[in-house]
Specification:
With 65 residues, the chain is of the alpha+beta class. 23% of the residues lie in helices and 6% in strands. The chain contains two helices and two strands; from the N terminus they run βααβ. It has a two-stranded antiparallel ribbon.
């Protein structure tokens, strides 16, 4: 669970939660009812499941295929 800050967007929330904006799509997929919001009000609650193993920040050259 994550509470948004006033004026925060999806990419900034993803960076705060997962450490990188590249996880914005994953955050949005897990908060489908909120997709019509582009800029959050303070206190919006986001669902923040752990990243799947293949979504973690493992460098591409270290990932198993």
């Amino acid at each position: 669970m994550y509470k948004t800050k006033q004026g925060e967007c999806w990419d900034k929330a993803a960076k705060a939660i997962y450490g990188s904006e590249k996880h914005t799509g994953y955050l949005m997929q897990n908060n489908f009812p909120l997709l019509d919001i582009a800029v959050f009000s303070a206190g919006t609650i986001l669902n923040t499941p752990d990243l799947p193993k293949d979504e973690e920040d493992t460098p591409p050259w270290r990932k198993r295929k």
